[in-house]
Amino acid sequence: KAAMKSLRFICAEALVSNAAFARRSLGSVAHNLFPLLFKASYLLERGEVIHDLVENWPLVDLNMGKLLGKTADYQEDLSHRTCVVCLESCLTGLRDYVLHPPSPYLKRLKVVDLTGIKDVEVQFCECKKPMGRWARTQLLSKLCLELLLHAQGVQRGPGAAEISIDVLVDLFVTERNYELVVQALLTRRSCPLKIHCVALRADNLALQKFFYIVKLMDPSLLRKLEVVHNVRLEMEHLQILFSRTRFPLLASLTLPARTFNVRRLTAADELVLSAVGEKLSEMTHLTELSMAFSILTGRIRKLLSPLKTPLKVLDVSNCSLNHADMAYLANSLHSNHLEVLDLSGHNIPDLYPATFFKLLCHSSSVLRSLILEECNIQDNHVNMLILGLSPCRKLQEFKFLGNPLSSEALKHLFRFFCELPMLKNVEFPVPKDCYPIGTTYPIDDANLCNFDRQKYDGVAEELKRILLQGNKEGVKASTPLFGSYDAAVEETNNELGTYLMKSFKETLEKFTNSLKELS
What we know:
This is Leucine-rich repeat-containing protein 14B. By secondary structure, the chain is α/β, with parallel strands linked by helices. Helices cover 43% and strands 10% of the residues.
């Protein structure tokens, strides 16, 4: 359903549709109309108009989230459109604002906030080409260095030295753009555009380089830190990071796989683990924590009990939790506040069904997203699962890929889904009766696609028909075999693939050399 447009917005669209006329007319446009024209230009992908609007921006701040979000004149939220034409035009317009400053009394821009941009799977812009977070990091860093080089070679005009704009941004740093980002951060004091990192994602980066980036970017402003995949951060490194650096505003922390491994802890390691827990407790804004694919057996209490603020988001998927861990979670202060919970990779029905349902009961009044992938949920567990989910009236998302459920069990579940008033997204497994008899769970990658696709398509259609009959046509139901879409991984998959091939080659060489030494 198309969002309604005010007469003002329709007029703004008409103006920016004629790019040449709009650009000539900007000098006579009232300042309070610039945000309206910006959103209209963004909707119509008028890159040249966006560039000129930003280059001549007359207001104190330029906040992308507010400009593109729901407004009185046009209710549709455009912040999920990461259109390369629009975003490139916006950032180059910002550079040219500095290079060609307006007369002194109009130089008002002090803050540019780029953090409201959301990366999504499907682009609705005409060009269909997104500019992801990594590319935005790359371009902004490049433009900052361009400004510095220009300042060194050109005599600046009156008023130019006064320009100082704080740019709030979510940075995404990998090995490939590391040097450029470092140079931009090192020269921040001299550059008119001052990069202020509000969220950092680090991937495919040597540990030393990760520490250096954190040091350069002023961690006191950081609200979100994602350290993922190919950053080999282990427990002792985490303690060093926390002991050297304060993160007073950090609200969200994602740690890479195997950060923790408590299977062979020494007494010294236990002290390190306790120290990490204490440091986490000093982060009074921390409400989101992801520790997926670590081994945390029996140590969840030690890590989470010092926290003074209840967690709203917790990802402990594939963390080898035992009954004591689940009992702690079910009875902790966090249980009544959890809005997003990921317990994938745990055999919930066999190991701790009662404790899990107690946790679900405590969080039911606020729970928005529940992920139970590869949890060995079978047909005989469906009625119990429905009983546990029934109080979760705010549940918007339920993902349960990789569970051995039949077509009939899935139909039963989908009839129940029609009773959840706020449900929007379901990720369900390929029915086990679509796989060859004897297929064992969890299914390995080699056999994941070895199922009867025609039969699956028939079941999927029937499940969607159940939703339609239950007036749930707005619910998205899908089976992403290799996991949900991740914009950051999608954007950098070529670099990560190269890294993995290199790592595999190095491991193979070490193994071959070891065999040679033995022989």
